[in-house]
Amino acid sequence: MTKLQSTKISLPENLRRDMVELLNRHVVLLTDLSIQTKLAHWNVRGPHFIAYHELFDELGGRLMEITDMVAERAVTLGGTAGVPVQEVAKRTTLPAWPVEQRRDAEVIRLLAERWAVVANSVREAIAASAETDPDTSDLFTEVSRQLDKDLWFIESHLA
Ligand SMILES: [Fe+2]
């Protein structure tokens, strides 16, 4: 069991450890989603190229900000934030991004699928932290709202 940094934050260590674990699980998902969004940004082709290329760039930028917020809550609670990319690959629950798939309509459908996995997992994290650490829960609420909004941007391009 990893030792946490000491802090004057008045939450018991076992509770902080649970929150750090929950937060890092989402750092992993968000990191994978960021990379997958970049792969979509780079490789997409088709009649909607420029709209999708630019949308994916904006989405990726917001993901970076969100990931930073989640990771920094983990260190705030005395934990270690994030994991090396090799660990991300082992721990992520997202399917791998099919880099050979370039067709715009298919790329946006695949991105919506993965986006929803992360957004819905964050929604579960709101409830999982609500009783024990309302601040972490509030952070997940903010992240959830942003991910849902961006899912709307993505889904609005689907027929
Ligand atoms: Fe770019």
Automatic annotation (TrEMBL):
Does the keyword Oxidoreductase feature in the UniProt annotation?
yes
EC id: 1.16.-.-
Q: Name the gene.
A: dps
- What is the designated name of this protein? DNA protection during starvation protein
Q: Which UniProt keywords apply?
A: Oxidoreductase
